[in-house]
Prior knowledge:
The structure holds 2 protein chains of 2 kinds.
Chain A: E1 3-9, E2 12-18, H1 24-31, E3 50-53, E4 56-59, E5 72-74, H2 88-95, H3 105-118, H4 124-130, H5 142-165
Parallel strand pairs in A: 1-5
Antiparallel strand pairs in A: 1-2, 3-4, 3-5
Helix pairs in contact in A: 2-5, 3-5
Chain B: E1 5-7, H1 12-21, E2 26-28, H2 34-39, E3 47-50, E4 60-63, E5 66-70, H3 75-80, H4 82-87, H5 89-96, H6 101-104, H7 109-115, H8 122-128, E6 132-135, E7 139-141, H9 142-145, E8 146-148, E9 151-152, E10 160-166, E11 170-177, E12 184-193, E13 196-202, E14 209-210, H10 212-220, H11 245-265
Parallel strand pairs in B: 1-3, 2-3
Antiparallel strand pairs in B: 4-5, 5-10, 6-7, 6-10, 8-9, 11-12, 12-13, 13-14
The structure holds flavin-adenine dinucleotide (FAD) and FE2/S2 (inorganic) cluster (2 copies).
Amino acid sequence: MNITVSMTVNGKPVTAEIDPRTLLAQFIRENLRLTGTHVGCDTGQCGACTVHLNGHAVKACNILAAQAQGATLLTIEGVRGVDGGLHPMQAAFREHHGLQCGFCTPGMVMNAIDLVQRHLHPAEEVIRAGLDGNLCRCTGYHNIVKAVQAAAARMAADTTAATLKQGGQA
Amino acid sequence: MYAFAYHRPATLKQAASLLRKTEGAKALSGGQSLIPALKMRLADPPVLVDLGGIAELRGIRLEGTTLIIGAMARHAEVAAAKEVMTGIPALAQLAAGIGDRQVRNLGTLGGALANNDPAADYPAAVLALDAVIHTNKRAISADRFFKGLMETALKPDEIITAVAFPLPTRAAYVKFRNPASRYAIVGVFVAETAGRVRVAVTGAASCVFRVKPMEKKLAGKFAPEAIAKVRVAADKLNSDIHASAEYRSHLITVIAQRAVTAALSGK
Lengths: 170, 267
Ligand SMILES: Cc1cc2nc3c(=O)[nH]c(=O)nc-3n(C[C@H](O)[C@H](O)[C@H](O)COP(=O)(O)OP(=O)(O)OC[C@H]3O[C@@H](n4cnc5c(N)ncnc54)[C@H](O)[C@@H]3O)c2cc1C
Ligand code: FES
Ligand code: FES
């Protein structure tokens, strides 16, 4: 029996009737046609399908769409910088060659943004441990770590600038 | 996946009645073990009862000398909760080492215990800390909860609601993890609570177990050298592609000593 799910995806409310077996990753890719969320392993190992569910990074292939009922979802398509261009994390991946084939990249970027939001100035070990659930077959990780470090510095600077602009204290 | 009907009740009472109504119905918490099992068609529940909408299963609080953690507490919440970090830092550290960030953002304490994977981390903490598992029907002591390979004392329609951990005077968990799966090849939780010592081992056999000879030695002298010569016989331990039973037997003693050292240093 089909069920109805509603959630907010990248700021827009969506409602759909689905088979309860529908995975969140499937829902995002096939119902919403947001194919930036990749499916690599479909077993919860590789992290390519990482999205933010109510502000937390989760693997969309390992959760039912039904479990996200009423939730706020952010996928790679909804990620952008304060000026509307690339998010500092995306820009840093480009600048530091944090990708080769790009298959793992959306998941890496989503997890890395969540990681940096919780650890403002992450040490290398924190980044490596934090990206444990994301596999990359191309880069060897070094440039991904460099990119996350660079983005973290930019994100901290952006936060400070935004706070000052609002007249608050940095 | 085989087809199933999906329900998301708002109260524990509704969830229990839904589980009771259909034989084979299953609770769904984080889904981090159940969804993979459904995908591989290792489970075919006709009904899934999602506990994610039940507020009474959430929350972490300290009550006197007991730490109470709701069944739906995510691993990441337990790892970051002030009550856990001050009350039982070893438990916060254990939760921070389960799987990866994304898994910790969904997986729950109740799901991990009900699942009772032989290599899971939480069962070692619950058994060593002599915690009490509360369900919608009763309270079950840790010693009577873990029954065997992925088997617990839970009845098919029974729901874990919370776990009560008595605060230990010192405790530590050390895990020798499989770098690919992140599960324990051997994990040892050592705890001293109200003058009694308990040692629980996960990852090594078909189910978490206590090492009473180590507990006795440590009660006499809480120091790593006290258990240096205590070995768990290999004949009841797992042999697989990750480690032989002999290797696991050796590891248990090494890791248990490291856990005692960590408990002594309070880290
Ligand atoms: C990539 C990956 C790595 C992992 N690494 C580790 C690791 O290193 N260490 C570790 O310990 N675990 C690990 N896990 C497992 C993870 O911790 C799971 O979250 C946990 O085992 C199950 O919790 P859950 O909330 O996801 O339960 P679910 O998957 O929702 O449920 C599991 C089982 O418990 C039952 N159940 C759920 N909640 C209740 C309840 N309240 N009352 C009664 N029955 C209930 C369900 O019916 C089901 O049978 C890993 C998982 C993945 C995907
Ligand atoms: S596709 Fe989800 S973890 Fe690999
Ligand atoms: S860039 Fe190819 S998998 Fe990471």
